[in-house]
Amino acid sequence: MAFYYESEDLNLRKKYNNLQYDELEEQDKQSAAYCISEQQMTTKQHEEQLQMDFEIIIKDIKNMCVYFTQKFIVQNENNTQLKKFPFIKVKNRVCHIFEKYQEQNTLLDQILEQICVSLMDVVKVYVLKYINNIGQSICEEFHNICDTIYILTKVRGIRTISRYCPHEVCNLEPVVMYLQNCSTDLNQNWETKYVILMWLSIIVLVPFDLNSIDSQIFNSIQDTFTSSNTIINSLLNLGVNYLKSSTKLRNMGALYLSKLFSRTDILKCNLLEQFLKWSVKQIHDLQDNILNTFYITGILETLVEILKVVQRDVLKDNLYILLPLLNLKQQGTLINLFLTKLTQRIGLVYLRPRVVSWTYKKGTTNLQQTLKIIDYSRIVTNSQISRTNQQLQQQQQSNIQLEDVDYFLDVDQEGLETVVDTLLQQIINKDTVVRWSAAKGIGRICARLNLDQADDIFDSLINTCFTPINGDTAWHGGCLALGELCRRGLILENKLESIIPIICKALIFEQNQGGYSIGVNVRDSACFIAWSAARAYDPEILKNHVLALAQHLVIVMIFDREVNVRRAASSTFQELVGRCPNIIPHGISILTEADYFSLAMIHNAYLRIAPFIASYPEYYKQMVDHLAFIKIASQDKEVRKLAAKSLGRLLVLDPTYFKDNLIYESILKMVRLQSLNQKHGALFALGDLLIAQSGNITKNSEEKELKDSVFLRTLTKNDRQLAKAGEHITIFKTQYEQLLQVDNMNLLSQEIIDEIMQIPKLLEDSLKGKSGEQIRIASYRLIECISISKLPLQVEQHAYYLKFIEDGLKNPLEEIQISAAKALRLLSNQYQIQGQFLIDGKEFLKRIIKQLNQKSTNAQVLIQGGYAQSVGAFSPQVLHNEDLSILYTIGLSKKRAKLTSWSIDPDTRKFAIKSLGQGIINQLNNNFNCDAQLLPVIDCILYAMLDYTVNKKGDVGLFIRENSIIAIQSILVSYVGYIERNHINNIIINEQYIIKIIGQLLQQLCEKIDRVRLLAGSVLQELFKSVFPKLQKFENYEQISAIFSTANLQQTIIKDQERVDQTFQSEIIEAEIKNLKDLLQNIGKTDLIYHWNLPHCCYRLIVPILAYPTFCRYILTGLCISVGGISESIQKFSEEALVQYIQNNQNLDLIMTNLIEILKLYALDERVVIPLFKTASLVLQKEEIQSLPMIKYYTETLIQLIYKETHKTQSINKLSASVQLIIDILSINAELFHQIIQHIYDILTSDFPKVRKQLADAFYLYLLSHDNEELISIDNNCLLQDYLLEIDWLSEELDKNMEECRSQLKKLLNL
């Protein structure tokens, strides 16, 4: 379970918070560098954590710098404190704390200067020292210092950290020399080179001519840009060399070169043009070899960075050099991405920055203009205002035309067209990052074009991306581009109307491809367009489109399959409501309920929030139509089922809409289609619609199932709290629950009902193949819903339904068998009560029992499971007075396997037990007398509760045990209700049965599987609360009942809460317990579920019951499995509870007596014997046990039983478990020495090396600590000890010389 495992972050936090060391320099107590303001922190706890982190960072950085300076710069080797300093651990802790602030990196700004300056000072001093001793190796600690700086740049960003780098001119040549003398392997210690290159990128911006500081000491780097050895060429070659790296060093090299080319002295040397030509040539030469991908990417990234920072006047005359790159053939994702970035940068160089006047601007941003307009409107007439506006518009148009003429004089129109065409092509690229980059490029370029040109691009975008034949890539790219244009106000009012239908289509975009669907990215980007439009445009402009957008956004945020899309739509809807107040109907109330957390759970969105929103008529039609015509045909099977359920819940809000709009007729047409998805979804939809139409939706069988998620769902406590219903849903719910119970069957025509009833028969041809399996399951669901809706059934239809169900029971797939059994249960309980239906039901039951009585073969194993689970599905009228002895036979088949030649499959036994329980429960609930059947059924179920069958699937008996626990509880609850209703005094469940039931439940409660303990504990709580007080009392009833009382468990929870919080993630624990409690409450179970699944809570409550002889054997049997098991947490807490009991109790003979009885009872059963040996060894080591008067008798009996278990056995595990127990018995009862020594000899000369070694070690320690001169002489004792130590008991040589070993041991042991 989730709460047993701490996250990686918690492990690291625990590891690094506990790191302690002697500081090398006193911390400045008055330093306020890490002090933070109240406004920055959300809570006091966060503030304290931040302050503590800052203190650790400053202290660790300072000590790291002192350590490095003292050891490698000052070279103070005599300082012993330096040797103790854990440099690597301190560095790892600092990096771990830095990475915690990746999402909120600005919080580090308050200490950034202090730590960056300290680290860079160390780097500077070491580099200057290194160039004076070129040739010596660079210490590893220097790489760790640079790695720390790199982590800081990764968290906070290059541009922020580089501000704190030293920038003296004198550092230029040393840094270049250091980089030139670094390893030629670019990937070796690349973080160090990254940091030094970042430093160099700051130094090269010094305001001096580089030639004036050139000392001519550099060697050129071969195979790069130029071979000259001037400082300028050395700087260029250095950067070009790093473009080949496959690491982040490549990005740093590109940034460094862009800054270098931004210098005027570099530009005067005409090196930029040479570099551009060299780059184009290199790319064309390298593009055919995939191994050069990183090099090409580095060159392209450098070109992009150069076009960002170099002046336009310098670049515009050289752009022709780069245009051939736009025609480069499609490469990998990285190359395409940087080609797209380069394309848009070329376009932005063509078009100098300007603010175009034609863009839409939301509101008035100039206060002076606003005041002028207000003042002017008070003194002029309307005609004057109109004339003035016309004059202003004419003047603006003439200004725009003049401006455009001047603006485009120096623009290469052909090159600009090439740029735009390339971006439009990249909009439909297969890679998302490329499409996103192209979309941003189109937005940036359109923001500098005139209106006509931008309109042309807009039209091309619409025609290119949003055609019916386009796939998800084109739609996604187009949506991203439209979102960018909207965000910048580049789509005017007259064009806005044309994109609203596109947004609405994109919001529900989905395309099926084989077994999956695509379109998630399209729907997400459509939310981005709507979000951008809401922010960019005035409500007056959007008011005609807001309702359509809101309706589609509601559909997406409720019914979309992906949680991120639902949340994106919710965020967009929130933006619309906030930006367009009083325009979106019921916006605030919808937002209150459909928020980030409540939409996280898809079941919650479909089944609770959807009916609430659909209660507003503005959204009802769109939601119903979307479910009825799109979602029930979804590619995802679970979405189809949810859509069907949700459609049923929406029907009750307006049943006439379904009739008037022929919803039933449309869904019935889908049943006849060939598409599996449509047919499957339509069958589920018809079923749920029938249930809702008949007012029986609260009786839906699927809503009351106790699923496995009871144990496995771990939704946190906070998420559950946030997903709770708000005040709007709470008010709506009271009225809605009444609507759920209204019968609207009068609105459904008889023709539609007849057609629905005939569907299972019409689908005979669709039940073949893989798709037929899902159709068959959906058909059984339809039969269930017909039964729940109580539709009138003809005898012929009933007979066909039974035949159809029988086909499902014979199907080898368990899912189909379960669906068929559920359909039979509802059909039988609704119709097979009297008359011909009852006769048909009894005949069907006889056929099933006849099939079960046939001898099981391999081919019939799976079929028998279907038949077995169907028996309990019949109505009590059908089952009454029928012979169900075959189910006892199946349930006890494992017990009788030794007497017969066959044994039933574990799954069949599980279904048989379940059917036995259901059959008895149904009859008791309907007041049928079951006295003759009740006790045999209980015996069978109690036997099944001890089923520990293991096969290649694992512990398959687990499911039998779980079903037995649930069945025994349900039977007892039903029986108590039966005797109370009928005032029966003769209770046949006597004290003996009650003790056996409680004992076996206690045994399950002490075992090692958490989910079984949780189930058994909750069942015992319920039985002691509502069942056992009404049955016969047994010995010590009051004491045991007190342990399981709600008051005692509540007090225990309160006492243990602090311990639970410290040991486990208590939120997850509480959520898991609460989940079980919620589900059990739905079927009338207890109010409180204790932490039975937690070993440290469970065992110390149950182990004290060992003091009561009635239940001692049961508890000890389960406890042995836990104490002697392999699970660390189970073993630890069960052993702790047992030891504590032994130390605090008197009647310990009871434990020894029962241990012996259990060993006899489970003889040769390794599942019990092996852990029992370990438990017995633990018990015998306690002084309280060793001092018992009868201990010699107990040890004598134990050694006899051990000998029977291990004599001639081939089980290594059993022999290994017996070793320590044998030695412990020998330590207690020396009288058994001669008997035990023979057994020791047998094991030491066996064929199992590990067991030999284990026994030799244990026996040696015994001889060392015990001085039994009467049994073995001192000389022999010493010789035996030496022999046990000298022999290599694991070696193969010993196996070859075993005869010699035997003779030697006989001699030493006096055998």
Descriptive tags:
single chain; 1311 residues; mainly alpha; two-stranded antiparallel sheet; 69 helices; 2 strands; 0% strand; flat
The number of helices is 69
Q: Output the strand order for the largest sheet.
A: 1-2
Q: Determine the mean pLDDT.
A: 81
Q: Give the CA-based shape.
A: flat
Cα distance, first to last residue? 53 Å
Structural class: mainly alpha
Strand content: under 5%
Strand count: 2
Helix content: 55-70%
- Largest sheet descriptor: 2 strands, antiparallel
Unreliable spans: 1-12, 26-42, 364-386, 703-720, 896-902, 1060-1086
Rg: 41 Å
Summarize the structure.
Keywords: Chaperone. This protein has about 1300 residues and is mainly α.
Description of the structure:
This is Tubulin-specific chaperone D. There is one protein chain. With 1311 residues, the protein is mainly alpha-helical. Helix content is 68%, strand content 0%. β1 and β2 (516-518) form a beta hairpin.
List the topology elements.
Layout: H1 8-17, H2 44-73, H3 80-84, H4 87-100, H5 109-131, H6 140-156, H7 158-162, H8 172-180, H9 190-203, H10 231-241, H11 249-261, H12 264-268, H13 271-286, H14 293-309, H15 312-315, H16 319-322, H17 333-350, H18 367-377, H19 382-407, H20 413-426, H21 432-446, H22 451-465, H23 472-487, H24 493-507, E1 511-513, E2 516-518, H25 520-536, H26 539-542, H27 546-559, H28 563-579, H29 587-593, H30 602-614, H31 617-629, H32 637-651, H33 655-660, H34 663-671, H35 676-693, H36 709-712, H37 717-722, H38 727-739, H39 750-757, H40 759-762, H41 769-789, H42 795-809, H43 814-831, H44 835-853, H45 861-871, H46 876-879, H47 885-891, H48 893-896, H49 906-925, H50 931-944, H51 957-981, H52 991-1005, H53 1010-1026, H54 1037-1043, H55 1046-1063, H56 1066-1081, H57 1095-1102, H58 1109-1123, H59 1128-1144, H60 1149-1161, H61 1166-1180, H62 1183-1186, H63 1191-1206, H64 1212-1228, H65 1233-1244, H66 1249-1265, H67 1274-1286, H68 1292-1296, H69 1298-1309
Antiparallel strand pairs: 1-2
